């Protein structure tokens, strides 16, 4: 706690020391950091502008840890108002990237990253560049942009050349992690060993522990579970000294899987259950998925198939969320890279145009007046034609995109969806992979339109679409077949997986809260499922069988799932 009676300078130094302690605790003991931060916050009126800026950066970190991303953004905006230094300014903008990631605005995150890199490159102070690159590496790791991690970590090490051991340790660690994530395992093993030795020698034990853990991950990926066990346990002991809960949870999940592969089911269950008891939070999704997979495998080995199934259902649900998250990140990353390439192309084009115009000017000065007029006219016509062609090309692309999408829901329309699915089906059949079709029909949809109006019906269709999209795998093809009838074409998914998915979808749709539409009604869906067999030569037989199963589901009382095998006797079609 701050002491009174110091000189102004000593008091300012004490404040800085308190902020240093809080920042170090943020990496290892989050709760202690938050407690000290709350104490220091009461003294904010006595802080300098630079200290206030730093304080609110720490507040934003606290909000980020608690997944309060909107509040974190407000704290960063407040920190900017106190004219922070270049180094702190760069940190603020990088934390803004982290906030964008937390809010799942990945396109904005990549845009902010690009702007920040441009800002960093203008700095003359290499120490600021290196420290900023290291923080940038952590953001790239969260965004799973491992090629960028590799490039930036090498750049940071080249700039540093061992002058700042702490920053060099971090750069070495991120470089090794990038090799691990890119599955360059032999190189990753060697890099983790070098990082462990260097950082231990220079007095950075936490980074050395992280390197031991990295070697454990390499051994696990290579299937050397005995070696992985020893390295994981050693790093776990190190993390416990620092109270590094995030890493401890991740290690516990890996130890659950490691002991399963070693045949020690009792230890495997102990470590997996530690993770399974964690609260459901974004930061825990991956470790809880891994723990539930381990518990499912253990239960299966013990013959407890009901438990195995329950654990696997949870693991699959978490996998879907993680896959959707990864797909969004990849799309945002590719879009950002595309935008960057386009900007460079436009700049190069403008420079080339400028050079061309200068040459034309010299030429025009040497030619007769009539020749100048003719050339000018020719250039004008050429530019006009070029602009016309570009406009037509852009309009064509826009029309093509619009032609593929349903105007109300934004998903594929019937023609585009079936064409895409037909291609996937041919690939699946040639590779002897499963392929399933799910047809869905909103129950009694006409009643919604009749009782509450077509605007409410449109709301129900769009709400249904958004709920279903959250459940889809990256390669599923979601299509509006017409009216209130939809289809999901599911490559690489067999009969049991398709039925389980359809039932989960049915339950999720039945839980839709309609009060935001302004009316109180229920939304349910009937589902028909079919799976390809070796006699199917096209998608048509699958759609037909799924449609017959859907008719059966309607006839059986609606709000249910029927597969093609269960609809051998097809009733007459009932009204929707």
Short key terms for the protein model shown above:
6 strands; 576 residues; 22 helices; disordered N terminus; six-stranded mixed beta sheet; Alpha-Beta Plaits
Describe this structure in words.
With 576 residues, the chain is mainly alpha-helical. The protein has a domain at 412-566: Alpha-Beta Plaits (2-Layer Sandwich), CATH 3.30.70.270. The chain is 72% helix and 6% strand. The protein contains 22 helices and six strands. It has helices at residues 8-28, 30-41, 49-65, 69-80, 86-102, 106-121, 126-142, 146-160, 165-181, 185-201, 205-221, 225-242, 245-261, 265-276, 285-301, 305-366, 369-404, 414-430, 445-452, 454-469, 495-510, 540-555; strands spanning 412-413, 435-442, 477-482, 485-491, 525-531, 561-563. β3 and β4 form a beta hairpin. It is globular, with a radius of gyration of 30 Å.
What is this entry, summarized?
The protein is mainly alpha-helical and 576 residues long. Helix content is 72%, strand content 6%. The chain has a six-stranded mixed beta sheet.
What are the SSEs and their pairings?
Blueprint: H1 8-28, H2 30-41, H3 49-65, H4 69-80, H5 86-102, H6 106-121, H7 126-142, H8 146-160, H9 165-181, H10 185-201, H11 205-221, H12 225-242, H13 245-261, H14 265-276, H15 285-301, H16 305-366, H17 369-404, E1 412-413, H18 414-430, E2 435-442, H19 445-452, H20 454-469, E3 477-482, E4 485-491, H21 495-510, E5 525-531, H22 540-555, E6 561-563
Parallel strand pairs: 1-3, 5-6
Antiparallel strand pairs: 2-4, 2-5, 3-4
Helix pairs in contact: 1-2, 1-3, 2-3, 3-4, 3-5, 4-5, 5-6, 5-7, 6-16, 7-8, 7-9, 8-9, 9-10, 9-11, 10-11, 11-12, 12-13, 13-14, 13-15, 14-15, 15-16, 19-20
């Amino acid at each position: 706690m701050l002491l009174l009676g110091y000189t102004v300078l000593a008091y300012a130094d004490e404040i800085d020391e308190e902020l240093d302690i809080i920042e170090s605790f943020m990496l290892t003991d989050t709760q202690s950091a938050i407690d000290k931060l709350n104490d220091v916050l009461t003294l904010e009126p006595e802080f300098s502008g630079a200290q206030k800026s730093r304080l609110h950066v720490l507040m934003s970190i606290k909000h980020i840890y608690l997944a309060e991303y909107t509040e974190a953004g407000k704290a960063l905006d407040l920190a900017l108002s106190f004219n922070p230094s270049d180094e702190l300014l760069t940190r603020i903008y990088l934390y803004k990237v982290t906030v964008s990631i937390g809010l799942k605005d990945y396109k904005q995150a990549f845009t902010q990253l690009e702007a920040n890199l441009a800002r960093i490159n203008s700095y003359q102070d290499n120490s600021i560049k290196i420290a900023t690159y290291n923080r940038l590496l952590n953001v790239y790791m969260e965004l799973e942009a491992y090629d960028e991690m590799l490039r930036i970590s090498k750049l940071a090490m080249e700039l540093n050349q061992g002058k700042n051991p702490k920053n060099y340790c971090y750069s070495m660690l991120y470089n090794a992690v990038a090799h691990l994530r890119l599955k360059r395992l032999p190189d990753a093993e060697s890099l983790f060993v070098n990082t462990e030795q260097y950082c231990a020698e220079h007095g950075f034990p936490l980074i050395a522990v992280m390197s031991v853990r990295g070697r454990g991950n390499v051994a696990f990926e290579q299937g050397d579970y005995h070696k992985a066990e020893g390295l994981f346990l050693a790093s776990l002991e190190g993390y416990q000294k620092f109270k590094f809960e995030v890493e401890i949870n991740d290690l516990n999940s890996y130890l659950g899987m490691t002991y399963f592969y070693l045949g020690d089911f009792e230890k495997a269950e102990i470590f997996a259950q530690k993770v399974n008891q964690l609260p459901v939070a974004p930061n825990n999704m991956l470790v809880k998925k891994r723990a539930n997979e381990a518990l499912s495998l253990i239960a299966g080995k013990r013959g407890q198939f009901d438990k195995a199934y329950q654990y696997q259902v949870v693991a699959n649900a978490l996998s879907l969320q993680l896959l959707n998250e990864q797909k969004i990140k990849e799309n945002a990353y590719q879009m950002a890279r595309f935008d960057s390439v386009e900007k460079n192309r436009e700049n190069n084009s403008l420079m080339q145009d400028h050079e061309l115009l200068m040459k034309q000017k010299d030429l025009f000065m040497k030619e007769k007046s009539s020749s100048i007029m003719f050339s000018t006219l020719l250039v004008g016509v050429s530019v006009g034609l070029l602009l016309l062609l570009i406009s037509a090309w852009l309009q064509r692309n826009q029309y093509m995109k619009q032609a593929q999408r349903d105007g109300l829901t934004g998903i594929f329309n019937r023609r585009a969806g079936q064409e895409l699915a037909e291609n996937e089906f041919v690939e699946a059949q040639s590779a002897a992979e499963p392929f399933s079709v799910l047809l869905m029909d909103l129950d009694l949809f006409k009643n919604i339109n009749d009782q509450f109006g077509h605007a409410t019906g449109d709301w129900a269709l769009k709400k249904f679409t958004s709920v279903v999209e959250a459940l889809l795998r990256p390669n599923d093809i979601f299509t509006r077949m017409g009216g209130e009838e939809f289809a999901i074409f599911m490559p690489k998914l067999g009969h049991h997986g398709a039925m389980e998915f359809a039932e989960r979808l049915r339950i999720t749709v039945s839980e839709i809260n309609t009060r935001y539409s302004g009316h109180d009604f229920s939304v349910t869906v009937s589902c028909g499922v079919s799976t390809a067999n070796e006699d199917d030569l096209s998608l048509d037989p699958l759609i037909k069988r799924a449609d017959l199963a859907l008719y059966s589901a309607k006839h059986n009382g609606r709000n249910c799932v029927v597969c093609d095998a269960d609809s051998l006797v097809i009733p007459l079609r009932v009204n929707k």
